[in-house]
């Protein structure tokens, strides 16, 4: 009686195992295990990120720190023994923050915490002194249009998710100025931290005057709200030296491991080497750059040279211009048809979770099978929606399958803040993420068929 039941059980087990694990995957178990063991056995990636952020600090476009970090990366790639290491020239905008302050005058004189928004204009040396009007959302702004003239508008909009809340930072100044506002403050775009302001780009409408714009912490926005609700006058002086200088020369950094059979077919991975000028850009996005770079270094160190080329790109100027991502597309236009996959890591380095993927269904089945090699890292999830800001222009122009590196962590708590520092990331997180990316990139680059050509 028992025997048939057991047979049925074994048959169903082996069927489900076969569905999850196609035969071709067997050849990749050993290299995957080697990559994971090598990565986890070392703190090399964490030390590399600590070195660049300690030596060069923040890496805003046009800064000395960014260009020195670019030259340092080229020298380090040479030490790694990567192939075809080069700098690809990109002219980038140079926005300079200068000194800035926000002083409360009424109801009581006090200096406040603030951060000017990237791309903002300055106030002039005397600053702007005006009353603050606290606005809850764009609808509220339109309703209270008659009260806005001559005032500093504060958008006090609690953080829900980045895509939703960031519109107050990006479009707020031009919306407010249409009703006569003289400057704009925005409640920092991120979950409430420890009185942490968040910078980030603002974008002026072409047909509206430009007014200075800055972020204040959630705690201060809530205080202003309470003061206004009590009918108390809020008067401040905002002073910002922010300005643009002439465009500066910068570079995307490129290094690769040339494919052993199909060198012209390329898997590209990377992050953006530039950062905001607060904190040191460890999470956004030095970490993403170093874990993808480390994935390539691990292949090189272990002598795992895949059939196709794997290329790492450290893009410049993602934060306030995207000139690096656009330049890569333009400079590699003829080669985009040979890009098999592009992967970006720009969501921080926390515990690995897997990858987002956009591409044909057959390719999704393939990368889902590859991700099953990452179960021990907790990185076996393949979600809808791959991509990234820097790979976006190339992916769109070339119709290239795209991947985003997924992690689980509170990215937006430290995003664009002075708290984006090295100590937010552990050596294990660097190693685990580098391992996950290495296994994915190596296997895609080595497949017997080109990803995306599955039946
Ligand atoms: Zn970023």
Polypeptide structure, described:
It is a single chain. The chain starts with a helix and ends in a 9-residue tail after the last helix. Strand 2 (100-106) and strand 3 form a beta hairpin. The longest helix is centred in the middle third of the chain and has 21 residues, at 282-302. The chain has 455 residues and is of the alpha/beta class. 51% of the residues are buried. It has helices spanning 2-20, 29-40, 44-56, 64-80, 138-143, 162-177, 218-229, 282-302, 323-331, 361-371, 392-398, 411-414, 427-446; strands at 83-96, 100-106, 110-112, 115-116, 128-135, 152-155, 183-187, 213-216, 235-240, 243-257, 262-272, 308-315, 339-344, 351-358, 381-384, 402-408. The chain binds zinc ion. Zinc ion is lined by residues 272, 284-285, 318, 346.
How would you describe this structure in keywords?
alpha/beta, 455 residues, 13 helices, eight-stranded mixed β-sheet
SSE map:
Blueprint: H1 2-20, H2 29-40, H3 44-56, H4 64-80, E1 83-96, E2 100-106, E3 110-112, E4 115-116, E5 128-135, H5 138-143, E6 152-155, H6 162-177, E7 183-187, E8 213-216, H7 218-229, E9 235-240, E10 243-257, E11 262-272, H8 282-302, E12 308-315, H9 323-331, E13 339-344, E14 351-358, H10 361-371, E15 381-384, H11 392-398, E16 402-408, H12 411-414, H13 427-446
Parallel strand pairs: 5-6, 6-7, 7-8, 11-12, 11-13, 13-16, 14-15
Antiparallel strand pairs: 1-10, 2-3, 2-9, 4-8, 5-9, 10-12, 14-16
The protein binds zinc ion (ZN).
């Amino acid at each position: 009686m028992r025997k048939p039941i057991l047979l049925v059980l074994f048959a169903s087990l082996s069927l489900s195992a076969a569905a999850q694990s196609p035969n071709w995957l067997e050849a990749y178990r050993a290299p995957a295990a080697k990559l994971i063991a090598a990565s986890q056995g070392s703190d090399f990636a964490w030390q590399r990120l600590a070195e660049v952020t300690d030596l060069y600090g923040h890496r805003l476009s046009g800064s000395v720190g960014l260009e020195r970090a670019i030259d340092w990366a080229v020298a380090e790639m040479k030490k790694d023994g990567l192939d075809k290491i080069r700098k690809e020239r990109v002219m980038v905008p140079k926005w300079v923050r200068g000194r800035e302050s926000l002083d409360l005058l009424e109801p009581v004189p006090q200096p406040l915490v603030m951060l000017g928004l990237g791309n903002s204009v300055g106030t002039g040396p005397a600053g702007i002194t005006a009353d603050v009007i606290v606005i809850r959302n764009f609808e509220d702004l339109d309703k209270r249009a008659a009260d806005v003239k001559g005032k500093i508008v504060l958008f006090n909009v609690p953080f829900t998710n980045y895509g939703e809340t960031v519109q107050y930072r990006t479009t707020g100044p031009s919306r407010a100025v249409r009703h006569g506002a003289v400057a704009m403050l925005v409640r920092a775009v991120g979950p409430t931290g420890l009185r942490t302001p968040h910078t980030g780009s603002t974008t002026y409408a072409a047909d509206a005057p430009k007014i200075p714009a800055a972020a204040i912490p959630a705690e201060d926005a809530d205080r202003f709200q309470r003061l206004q609700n009590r009918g108390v006058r809020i008067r401040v002086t905002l002073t910002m030296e922010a300005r643009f200088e002439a465009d500066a020369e910068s570079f995307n950094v490129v290094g690769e491991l040339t494919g052993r059979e199909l060198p012209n077919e390329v898997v590209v991975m990377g992050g953006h080497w530039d950062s905001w000028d607060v904190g040191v850009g460890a999470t956004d996005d030095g970490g993403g750059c170093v874990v993808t770079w480390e994935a390539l270094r691990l292949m090189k160190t272990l002598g795992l040279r895949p059939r196709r080329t794997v290329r790492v790109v450290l893009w410049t100027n993602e934060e306030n211009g995207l000139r690096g991502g656009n330049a890569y597309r333009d400079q590699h236009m003829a080669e985009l048809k040979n890009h098999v996959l592009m992967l970006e890591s720009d969501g921080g380095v926390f515990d690995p979770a897997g990858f987002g993927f956009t591409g044909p269904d057959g390719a999704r089945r393939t990368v889902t099978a590859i991700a099953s090699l990452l179960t021990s890292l907790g990185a076996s999830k393949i979600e809808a929606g791959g991509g990234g800001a820097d790979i976006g222009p190339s992916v769109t122009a070339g119709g290239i399958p795209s991947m985003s590196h997924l992690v689980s962590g509170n990215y937006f708590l430290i995003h664009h803040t002075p708290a984006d520092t090295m100590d937010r990331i552990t050596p294990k997180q660097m190693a685990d993420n580098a391992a996950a990316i290495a296994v994915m990139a190596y296997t895609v680059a080595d497949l017997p068929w080109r990803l995306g050509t599955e039946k």
